[in-house]
Design a protein that fits this description.
67 residues; mainly alpha; 73% helix; 0% strand; elongated
């Protein structure tokens, strides 16, 4: 997926360096996210929308206890 994004940005800017600069923060965010999740004992939820916007109590309880 990242390769496809890189190719599209290369085509947009017609440069091989500019997309590298633009995309450099992507792996750097993992350097901060992964240790922080490990230190806090937090799970990574792929569907953040459900985590933040659950309205029914029963639904929220199911999200707190993944199977």
């Amino acid at each position: 997926m990242l390769v496809l994004i890189y190719v599209l940005v290369v085509g947009w800017f017609r440069s091989f360096i500019v997309p590298l600069i633009i995309m450099a923060p992507i792996p750097l965010t993992l350097v901060g996210i992964m240790p922080a999740h490990a230190m806090l004992g937090a799970f990574f939820y792929g569907n953040l929308h459900d985590r933040l916007h659950c309205r029914r109590r029963h639904h929220c309880a199911q999200l707190d206890h993944p199977r």
